[in-house]
Design a protein that fits this description.
Strand order of the largest sheet: 8-13-12-11-9-10
Largest sheet: 6 strands, mixed
Shape: elongated
Helix content: 25-40%
Strand content: 15-25%
CATH topology of the largest domain: Rossmann fold
CATH class of the largest domain: Alpha Beta
Structural class: alpha/beta
């Protein structure tokens, strides 16, 4: 079928399927214009090419920084074919129209993902001419077909060969993809530059957040909601978005959200740790001498809530642990490593989702929360408490074991929805009260949990994610045998709370900062 396409400009860093595409263009008698590296690549595959320098009548300048920034290129792209004045003007300058622009950009994202990349190397991978050509073609999409991804090659060729043209609907869709391509590219650069000499990153009045689709999800929090899983441009190991699924059904929206909480929780500990999360809250967390024992202790924290939960470890899952895990219903299992035999045991359970995430020190730097018509952004809460940071406000100090348990309980409280109360003993959660509108209710729930599962509360410790507004919490905890409390302080009733702790012989330490989680 006849067509009106005469010239195509190709300049790509991603050369996948390029030879097939260029060959089909050539067979359609479409002249190909190209730049240095792409031109040489096509020539090696015996595809006729006209180099850009032969169009601009200028050699590449400044180590290739200037190649396509020329009226002979942009005039050929931007001229509206249905505007007689445009066509007359470019003809007077001996400029020929360019009908197809196939461009993708220098691999900036790939460059900055390399460990220890030099800033100068990153800067040299900022494309200038490519985005200019893409934007020009996308602006003039009625006259020019713009292609930014190899996945669109076949569709364009199919339309030309079967219809003699590319429909306006397709041109508009390709233009939208093109502007999205350059916007994403620029946002990666802007975000990268915002991290240079800035910790946390410097946020401007207007920001963009570069996200890449991992995959669509079956549904969102509920089955009537659509959902997608995206990750940001930061390709650091150790984060939930960079997990590797080794086995099981596809992850759900809730699996991913809860898995992130479980993983970030166990990452915060240096001892063998296990965290079990259900509906956005930890229900069991424990430290022990082995991974298996940490799981047994975490499961004992609340065996009912743990049913169908997300289990995360900060160490290698071995055979003994796998055998214990296989006796429970688990939705998702997360660990940095699995022995071969352990993995084989776990894979016998068809539906369990097994994830591997490298254990690194990388942390999220910013948290995002969507609201109607906007977004809240904050730095990530990743402050760990240490013994020397704590302030004693009672005359009787906690013993070494209590201090250890208080620090453990406080680090668990960071991952509990507010209002949150955590009871712990021997580096094991024995009760959690989460997501309550009053702290006294959270305290009651935590104590009830401990009683329900047969824990001896006497000598245990309590962590509160924010201050106690009244002393009634202290009375209730003391009555049940809690021996020490860690909390931020800061209430107008602090002195009353401290006095009650003193009166009831409870040791109390202050962190002087809270860990609300909403």
């Amino acid at each position: 079928m006849s067509h009106s396409f005469k010239r195509a400009l190709i300049s790509v860093s991603d050369k996948s399927h390029l030879v097939e595409f260029a060959t089909k263009l050539h067979n359609l008698n479409i002249q190909i214009i190209s730049t240095g590296g792409t031109a040489e690549y096509l020539k090696t595959h015996l595809i006729p090419v006209i180099e850009v320098a032969n169009i601009t009548h200028h050699k590449e300048m400044l180590d290739g920084r200037v190649k396509t920034l020329h009226p002979n290129i942009h005039g050929g792209i931007l001229a509206c074919r249905d505007n007689p004045e445009h066509m007359t003007e470019i003809k007077s300058h001996d400029i020929e129209p360019i009908d197809i622009v196939c461009v993708n950009l220098y691999p900036f994202e790939e460059c900055i993902s390399k460990p220890g990349v030099a800033f100068t190397d990153a800067v040299e991978n900022i494309d200038i001419g490519g985005p200019a050509m893409i934007r020009s073609a996308a602006k003039n999409h009625k006259s020019v077909v713009v292609i930014t991804h190899p996945s669109d090659y076949d569709g364009v060729i199919h339309d030309i060969t079967t219809q003699g043209d590319v429909s306006y609907h397709t041109r508009l869709h390709l233009a939208q993809k093109a502007f999205n391509h350059t916007a994403y590219y620029d946002s990666i650069i802007a975000n990268y530059l915002s991290t240079i000499d800035c910790n946390p990153p410097k946020l401007e009045d207007k920001i963009t957040i570069p996200l890449t689709l991992i995959n669509p999800l079956r549904y969102g929090e509920n089955s009537h909601q659509m959902a997608w899983f995206y990750k940001d441009s930061n390709k650091r190991d150790g984060l939930m978005a960079n997990c590797h699924q080794l086995h099981g059904k596809e992850l759900s929206y809730n699996n991913i959200a809860d898995g992130d909480t479980a993983w970030e929780c166990v990452k915060s500990f240096t001892s063998h740790a296990c965290a079990i999360v259900k509906h956005a809250n930890p229900c069991g967390v424990a430290l022990s001498d082995t991974i298996k024992n940490s799981y047994i202790k975490a499961l004992a924290s609340d065996p009912i809530s743990s049913f169908g939960g997300i289990v995360a470890f900060n160490g290698e899952v071995d055979v003994d642990t796998a055998i214990s895990l296989s006796q429970q219903f688990i939705e998702v299992l997360i660990a940095p490593r699995y022995t071969k035999t352990a993995l084989e045991i776990l894979q016998k359970k068809a539906n369990i989702r097994i994830l591997q995430i490298n254990l690194t020190e990388n942390m999220n730097t910013l948290d995002y929360k969507r609201i109607g018509g906007g977004m809240l952004i904050q730095t990530t809460e990743n402050k760990l408490i240490h013994k020397e940071d704590l302030k004693l406000v009672t005359s009787h100090a906690p013993n070494i074991d209590q201090i250890r348990d208080m620090i453990f309980a406080w680090n668990v409280a960071r991952f509990v929805k507010s209002n949150g109360i955590v009871l712990a003993k021997n580096e094991q959660v024995i009760g959690i009260g989460a997501g309550q509108t009053s702290r006294i209710d959270a305290t009651k729930i935590a104590l009830n949990k401990a009683h329900d599962f047969g824990f001896n509360i006497i000598g245990s410790v309590c962590a509160s994610d924010a201050f106690f507004p009244f002393s009634d919490n202290i009375e209730l905890l003391a009555k049940q045998g809690v021996g020490a409390i860690i909390q931020p302080g800061g209430s107008v009733k602090d002195e009353e709370v401290f006095s009650m702790a003193e009166k009831l012989n409870i040791s109390m330490l202050l962190t002087n900062y809270r860990v609300f989680r909403h």
